[in-house]
Amino acid sequence: MxxxxxxxxxxxxxxxxSRAFLALLGLVSRASSLAAPAxxxxxxxxxxxxxxxxxxxxxxxxxxxxxxxxxxxxxxELARRIRRKEVTCVxxxxxxxxxxxxxxxxxxxxxxxxxxxxxxxxxxxxxxxxEGHDDEESLRxxxxxxGVPFSIKEAFALHGLPNTSGLVNRRNIISTTDATVVSRLxxxxxxxxxxxxxxxxxxxxxSSNRIxxxxxxxxxxxxxxxxxxxxEGSILAAAGSVIGVGSDIxxxxxxxxxxxxxxxxxxxxxxxPNEGQFPIAQGVRINFLCTGPMCRYAEDLEPMLRVMAGxxxxxxxLDEKVSLEKVKFYFMEHDGGSPFVSPVDKEILQSxxxxxxxxxxxxxxxxxxVAISKMKYSLQIWSVMMSAKSSDGQKIQNFTDLLGDHGKxxxxxxxxxxxxxGRSTHTLPAIVLGISENFVNYSPKANSKLExxxxxxxxxxxxxxxxxxxxxxxxxxxVAPKHHAPLGMPFNFAYTAIFNILGLPxxxxxxxxxxxxLPLGIQVVASPHNDHLTMAVARYLEKEFGGWVCPGxx
Length: 554
What we know:
There is one protein chain. This protein has 554 residues and is an alpha/beta fold. The protein is built from 18 helices and 13 strands. The chain has helices at 5-35, 47-50, 75-83, 89-107, 115-131, 136-142, 180-187, 230-237, 254-259, 301-309, 346-363, 378-386, 399-403, 412-420, 428-439, 444-465, 494-502, 531-545; strands at 110-113, 149-153, 191-196, 208-209, 213-214, 243-248, 263-266, 290-295, 328-331, 367-369, 469-473, 506-513, 519-525. The radius of gyration is 23 Å and the shape is globular. The protein starts with a helix and ends in a 9-residue tail after the last helix.
């Protein structure tokens, strides 16, 4: 479908505005660095500062690589070693606590910990094992993640810890219960270490708020971690946790997983319960919000999903053996040229081509290129369907109303004026979203057309993939951008958001690092209830491309 003249002019204008905004950010950042105080004489000079030849070369700061071997094992492997008493649970928990204390001052990912309680629970695990009441197989069936540390997005309730979702009005809210998925992971033997940062009310793709501040990317501290499960992605990538809980209504698991080089899975809609998080989806959005696993190692995806889904796991086909040679593969290099999103980076395109070449060479399959024209309208489809009435006529809750939770009503325009003088308790993205929801509306005719297009796109993809196909698609058009840069490219989340609307299972898979040392990745999509296919491909891609890479290089 050819672009209209208005779309072409709109695209040019958006790109010019984005470039101007990013240039302004660069000037502000440069001015800040010039105004920064000189290093203390006690601070040792870095190698770059000591070398005149390298003085003009930018030094990328990352977290130090993990030094303990226990930090380089999957959750499944840690549980196996703990059951066999090859390592004590206390040793594992102490090692992860030490790692968090090492990296968190740099990345600000864990916003509230429970280290003392975690150590007490680790002692209880070791005591249980010393009593020897159950054999190893019984322990594996009853407690598949016995003694394994995990972290949780702060938007989820974890007993005794805050549940603010970055909203200042909720800063005194302390959870008195556990979210359903948190409870299930605890029952599986896992030990929570703490809660992690998110964007304000989980509706932006940089994890920053006025309670906890901003999280940083472990591969480059000047880059974003994504959102809204960004703190989760960051602490996992930094080896401060091994498995974690995220939620996703527009890519909030998959974008952080991509930016931080880990695995993240958005399950088929309705498989994993969403209860116990704030804000909770209402109306039609119940069909779009998904809770799912985030992890460094692909082998943790399936067992985590089994635990989190509980009895609803029977709706999936996880016990079916997958022969990748018999799977049908399809791919698209980009969305077809939406004027609202950035062009896909060359390195992302190259990494996708390497995946295609590998599948064809190693598995002997044909990876078919497809051109699905409706993907170009992903942003518009997501926006309209997120605001639609449910089948019973129920309207969704306004974002502005959520901003006033546990406080006085919020007037976004007034908050914007306050923000300009540093007096607002809200972040700029949240304020702008509150303003825009009152002014950005499609006509009823356009709404109907876009809703119809969304339903048609779902049918088209389901007919393409059936029960034996997967679709390869970029996780995001650019690698992790600098802090604040998303304000100049606010709609790039469309690459992930469209699959929430379609209700399809998607796994984000890491594919190594770019030349700048930032993670690359790809989305693997299947038709509903075929999560087993995307996770099987994830395990294969990890084997072929290396999966998670240590920040700072191990």
